[in-house]
Here is the input.
Amino acid sequence: MIRDSAEAPLTSSATWQALAEHHAAIKDVHLRKLFVDDRKRAVRFTAEGAGIFLDYSKNRITGETVALLVKLAEERGLTEKRAAMFRGDKINVTERRAVLHTALRAPRDAVIEVDGRNVVPAVHAVLDRMADFSTRVRSGAWKGHTGKRIRNVVNIGIGGSHVGPEMAYLALRRYSDRNLRFRFIANVDGAAFTEATQDLDAAETLFIVSSKTFTTLETMSNADVARAWLINKLGDESAVAKHFAAVSTNAAGVRAFGIDTSNMFEFWDWVGGRYSLDSAIGLSTMLAVGPENFRAMLAGYYDMDVHFRTTPLDRNLPVLLGLLTVWYADFFGAETLAVLPYAQNLARFPAYLQQLQMESSGKCVDLTRRRVDYGTGPILWGEPGTDGQHSFYQLLHQGTHLVPADFIGFLEPMSPLAAPHDLLTANLFAQAEGLAFGKTAEEVAAEGVEAADVPYRVMEGNRPSNMLLAERLDPRTLGALIALYEHSVFVQGAVWGIGSFDQWGVELGKVLAEKIIGELRAADEPKLEHDSSTNALIHRYREHRARGH
Ligand code: F6P
Here is the structure.
């Protein structure tokens, strides 16, 4: 039985109180002092697992901080909650579902049961079908309706059915088949479809309609547009069979749309949208990098799963990252978390993590239905370095907000151009150093700066960061990196006692939009019963349309 946070509200627990007192004692201690006081700090505050090295020494913590946070995690039942997730218990209590993305990367011989049935054979059966399909498309054996081979793959999906595939394609582009072009369409704005397809030959184009539910408005609308586009270009409705595949949990919906279910790749309701890249939702990724690389990515996820499950909490990468997120959100009042990959190929990684973090931890009610009296998930954002250095880093260095940052770097370059990699890495290390240690007034003055200008140039420092380093950005590392953040989010949810696996907040907008669509399109003036602002906006739009636009 999972211990419930009902018994002891989080903020009144003795450990929470101890953390609050400890925070009061160290909140003004500068990282400069922490490093001088503890010469072994850079060794002490490191951890490694699944090919990822974490230096968390530049955080505003001491050994006592880590010990207290780990104690808090234990008291909040992290170990039992983790076991329950891996076991397949229905820990997504608000949707009454198991949470088993970890089963998607389990080895063939693993046994993981949901409602008494081992799900692992079905996982591998779908992976095998995906591999067979990918091989046929990549080799040219799969022919389009006119007999041409496929050269363009267009993924249509949104949220977890989009941003993961897009992110992974960019991340692993180096490993991709350059004879295939990949496009990703999410936005219901017709411009997304038009721009993505304007230079494509329909006879060489394969659409993958990716939707867990196969009911999402944006995806269904874009899929309809794609089907009409294809039929219009190829002049034959039966062309759909050779140019559409679907990834979904909803076979009936796929059939109703007109996609042959033999071109459908299944996943299950125990896979959350934002946790689904390693399911059939990754079909476009497999088409790009091939089955072997896709399986290497799954092996990386699995490496991190094993690390998370078996490593003591105080050396456990996801546990440390998750607890540091709690530390800054709740004790320092940090409202955001920056993720700053020093790798152009990870350009979409912050956006990917944004959904993972913010749909999971963006909750204000705990699992005992109580309004929480502590901060939950921070706003996650970020851009690759070094680009960001020339825009928002100014605020990181001298602004009034405390923004904890995760830097991500690689020891090896992702391109044959090795020389720039030293520059990139120098900037990576320099930023973490600069944020932590800043520049004192004395140091600025010693550079010959006029006294009146010194205050403008002082950097207070004491701005915390993690440094994540791996050898190279390959499929296995990408899998491990994603799983690292998945489990970090899990740890946060366990401590906060929130439901990390639902997203009810997204539903309201969907329902309201459904109503407004009818009102925008109605032939006769509709009777509007919204607030006066929304009514006026609908009027303005209708009037503009009525003028023939
Ligand atoms: O908008 C919320 C959401 O449910 C996400 O969690 C999900 O990833 C996305 O919509 C897409 O849903 P589907 O895959 O069912 O189309």
